[in-house]
Amino acid sequence: MSLILKARALGKKYRRRWALSNCTLDVPAGRVVGLVGPNGAGKSTLLNLASGMLTPTSGDIEVCGGRPAGGTAQLAKVGFVAQDTPTYAGLTIGEHLRLGDRLNPGWDAALAERRIRRLGLDPRQRAGRLSGGQRAQLALTLGIAKRPELLILDEPVAALDPLARREFMRDLTDAVAEHGLSVVLSSHLVSDLERVCDHLIVLVDSRVQAAGDVDALLATHHRFTGTRRDPAGLPADHHVVSVHHSGRDTTLLVRADAPVDDPAWTVSRPDLEDVVLAYLGRPATDGHSPRSALEALR
């Protein structure tokens, strides 16, 4: 399996606080990877390490077969759109495209101009007069026209209205299909990730809690419902992710290759949001399982 990103015991510390700790990941190439977690979980830190904007405090990271920002050739392999979809307010759209041409050796001018025309944007218009959705589309155009192997998007739709967000995600999906990009996309909105992503990483308390293909994650997570009881009685290969007691009932989110055949439990299939929320509500070192969620999914 070809990897677009590989991290081993990766960590980043700011003074006394670890923003990312002991992060070990294998991200396959050719995927649209969703990165999800609460505020302060380390998502932006991981993406900034992958883009070369930050350097690790501990561990190692390899992106597109090399060290992030390790020279001109390596920089050309990665496109990065930051959370505020940065553009230069005083420059026109056309000037942004010409700047991209001068700064990027693999720049695809025809692609950039074609996207701007399709979006109905006037190359003479200054970026400072664009709507939030238009600025996001301009930033995405700059990232795609660079022709990177990996496109990193840090919360690119956070400030957009639902319609602009959907249009952005649709354009991203089209670009992936047309140009064969690998993408890592962070978002708080699981519905957006579910629409476009085929691989998922869940970060909580600066640690990876789950990682894998979406289909595999959904196939190996099960919702157990029954009369109130201690989940410790489940088989050893059933790893309890979350427990919820309500009156006389107990609901569990369980990770297992196949659910136990026990008539005392009603077993159903959770959706992706159920799985994500279960991990987000679970402390990184809660002791539910002798193995980490990431280790068990490998």
From TrEMBL:
<protein>
    <submittedName>
        <fullName>ABC transporter ATP-binding protein</fullName>
    </submittedName>
</protein>
<dbReference type="InterPro" id="IPR003593">
    <property type="entry name" value="AAA+_ATPase"/>
</dbReference>
<dbReference type="InterPro" id="IPR051782">
    <property type="entry name" value="ABC_Transporter_VariousFunc"/>
</dbReference>
<keyword id="KW-0547">Nucleotide-binding</keyword>
<dbReference type="InterPro" id="IPR003439">
    <property type="entry name" value="ABC_transporter-like_ATP-bd"/>
</dbReference>
<feature type="domain" description="ABC transporter">
    <location>
        <begin position="5"/>
        <end position="230"/>
    </location>
</feature>
<dbReference type="GO" id="GO:0016887">
    <property type="term" value="F:ATP hydrolysis activity"/>
</dbReference>
<dbReference type="Pfam" id="PF00005">
    <property type="entry name" value="ABC_tran"/>
</dbReference>
<keyword id="KW-0813">Transport</keyword>
<keyword id="KW-0067">ATP-binding</keyword>
<dbReference type="InterPro" id="IPR027417">
    <property type="entry name" value="P-loop_NTPase"/>
</dbReference>
<dbReference type="GO" id="GO:0005524">
    <property type="term" value="F:ATP binding"/>
</dbReference>
